[in-house]
Write a structure and sequence with these properties.
Layout lengths: L2 E5 L8 H8 L5 E7 L11 H10 L4 E6 L4 H10 L3 E5 L6 H10 L3 E6 L7 H4 L7 E4 L12 H6 L7 E4 L7 H6 L4 E4 L1 H4 L4 H16 L1
Parallel strand pairs: 1-2, 1-8, 2-3, 3-4, 4-5, 5-6, 6-7, 7-8
Helix pairs in contact: 1-9, 3-4
Length: 211
């Protein structure tokens, strides 16, 4: 059954604490985008925000690093005690080395792919990863990738899978069929309606498609 993760980057920055609190009862985790303005053309959540979150909520925190050189961030966030860190295979640093750092701190590591990167790359890092994250839209924003589901069909069998990028209710049935583990939802959760009601409705929809 596909679970729901809330993309905090999509929440209203002027009402961040309020909007996070509104969705906690209906999501499995909080998804935290870190961007450097290079790998992705935007700047994501700051270290301070993520550190403060880790100190005030028991909700699992999943960090998604969309940065060109992730080593320093990998050290910082794995020592912070987040549940997982997704690292892009297209980044400049060696994934195997980064994975050792993450795992040494008791944190899970996921291999992340841009929407244009060959799915076969996941086979090359299988021993170093605990799962994968598929971007289903361009890093930092853009439309849902029309090839996303075909790409997901080609992923290694049995691999824990997260999807992230313009995910909405229209995609839930297919995500259930593909046995996706975690769907990261941002705009559909925080922008289109009241977050409390939206998170409840979206969670129920996902559960219904996974039944």
């Amino acid at each position: 059954m596909t679970a729901l993760s809330a993309s905090v980057y999509a929440a209203d920055p002027f009402r961040l604490a309020e909007e996070i609190e509104a969705v906690l009862a209906n999501v499995e985790s909080l998804h935290l985008d870190v961007m450097d303005g290079v790998f992705a053309p935007e700047y994501g959540l700051t270290t301070r925000v993520i550190r403060d979150l880790s100190g005030c909520t028991a909700m699992p925190l999943d960090v998604h690093l969309m940065v060109a050189r992730p080593k320093e961030s990998v050290i910082r966030f794995s020592e912070m005690g987040v549940r997982s860190i997704a690292i892009h295979l297209e980044a400049e640093d060696d994934f195997g080395e980064l994975s050792k750092i993450v795992r040494s701190n008791g944190t899970k590591v996921y291999a992340a792919l841009r929407h244009t990167t060959a799915v076969s790359m996941l086979e090359e890092v299988a021993e170093h990863s605990d799962g994968c994250l598929f971007l289903t839209a361009p890093a930092g924003g853009g439309s849902f990738d029309e090839h996303a589901f075909a790409r997901l069909e080609r992923r290694p069998i049995g691999l824990y899978t997260i999807v992230d990028g313009k995910i909405g209710p229209d995609h839930f049935r297919r995500l259930g069929e593909l046995r996706i583990d975690l769907a990261v939802v941002g705009a559909a959760l925080f922008i289109h309606g009241d977050p409390r009601e939206r998170s409840k409705a979206l969670s129920q929809m996902l559960q219904g498609h996974g039944a």
